[in-house]
């Protein structure tokens, strides 16, 4: 697992984990634990570096073709920081399993899979 919420900017994470060696259209994947803003709260702390990942949607259910049951959810985020050359250059998809599909001792909504995608080159004014 890698903590994607913290002091590193998306491009620093990209470089650290081999993103510079990827072909166009290839992505980096990470398992990480969600970090709540407060111990008893439900809000997730989405800070990354000097900004946050901005949610672009409320999430979409992913449904099994066979059983038609919800197996996970998918959310899309974008890195936004006004006046930064990296504004809009990073996309993150969050995938979380439906806890009811896991054994009781593993049920938790705090472990998710992230896909980070480079969405163009930084724009220097």
UniProtKB/TrEMBL annotation:
Keywords assigned: DNA-binding, Nucleus, Transcription, Transcription regulation
InterPro entries cross-referenced by the UniProt entry: NAC-dom, NAC_dom_sf
Pfam family, one: NAM
One example GO MF annotation: DNA binding
Superkingdom of the organism of origin: Eukaryota
PROSITE patterns in alphabetical order: NAC
Ranges where the NAC domain occurs: 1-119
Name of this protein: NAC domain-containing protein
PANTHER family recorded: NAC TRANSCRIPTION FACTOR 56
BP-aspect Gene Ontology terms: regulation of DNA-templated transcription
SUPFAM superfamilies tied to this protein: NAC domain
Originating species: Citrus clementina (Clementine)
